Amino acid sequence: METTKRVINISGKFGSWTVLEKQGKQVLCKCDCGIQKLVYSHTLTNGRSTNCGCKKRKESIPVGATFGRLTVISDIEVKGKRGELLLLTLCRCGTQKYVSKNSLKRGLTQSCGCLQRDSLKTDKTIHGHCKSHEYNSWLHIKRICYNKNHHQYKYHGRCGIEVDASWRDNFTQFLKDMGLAPEGTVISRIDQESDFAPGNCLWIPRKEHYRQIHVLRRKEFFVSQTLPKAVVTNSEINVSPNIVRAVIKDHANGEANMNKLATQYKISTQDAINIILHHV
């Protein structure tokens, strides 16, 4: 195959790239869409890099488009610190802010931050539940859907589960739809493949919640990630019922480290594993 190696000159064109400056093995280029980026020289000359990626991105968001309290006021996309595309928006409160394009499209960002602040003010002054189980449940479902560092994110947000837009920044609406939680209950979804949304959530006993929703996932996780390969589980547990209940409770509250549970309750790791596998 015949190949022709092109020479990189200032102002030279490589697809949508225009060469601005040479910097060693890299070249500062400007894409036709306006984005500037350092590109390796060989990716220009061999044709692997022809644009900043704008050709593959979905349609742009037009000026004037509204998302909650935000209105897009510029269609120029700017790259953020993590490589995400940002658009300049004007909030209803008068604040201008660069917001992730993807967050706007997915409905994750509805304001400059004033919506949440107003919601918190309303929560504290009107609904009177800012320290309640219902309020903490509302915060919890948002964390497990959007906080990638939360230990339950992989079962929810990573699987595409979200919080309905009518609840996401509005605890009052959440409380109106869900009502007060009976004692000893937690929020759960009826259809485990669908979002936390009105009509798909209910309050169920905590023990039933973890039995129906988390046990199979946790067991799979323990077998594949936590259990030593040499360990063979059995159902014989020589510990007191009080310790069994305590281990189950800690596990239900999110503790997945069997060694830590074993140390805390002065039992063997094997007993801690068996308690979870056979008594939850």
Low-confidence stretches: 226-235
**Which strand-content bin applies to the residues?**
15-25%
* H-E order: EEEEHEEEEEHHHHHEEHHHH
**How confident overall, as mean pLDDT?**
79
The dominant shape is flat
Number of helices: 10
| Helical/strand content category | alpha+beta
Gyration radius, in Å: 26 Å
For the termini, the CA-CA separation is: 65 Å
In total, the number of strands is 11
Q: What is the helical fraction, as a range of percent?
A: 25-40%
Oligomer state of the chains in this structure: single chain
Describe this structure in words.
The protein is an alpha+beta fold and 280 residues long. 37% of the residues lie in helices and 18% in strands. The protein contains 10 helices and 11 strands. The protein has helices at 41-45, 101-106, 114-127, 133-146, 165-168, 171-178, 206-226, 241-252, 258-265, 269-279; strands spanning 13-14, 17-23, 26-31, 36-40, 66-67, 70-72, 78-79, 85-91, 96-100, 185-189, 201-205. Strands 5, 6, 7, 8 and 9 form a 5-stranded antiparallel β-sheet that branches. A hairpin with a 2-residue loop joins β2 (17-23) and β3 (26-31). α9 (258-265) crosses α10 (269-279). The radius of gyration is 26 Å and the shape is flat. The relative contact order is 0.06. Mean pLDDT is 79; it is low at 226-235.
List keywords for this structure.
280 residues; alpha+beta; five-stranded antiparallel β-sheet; flat
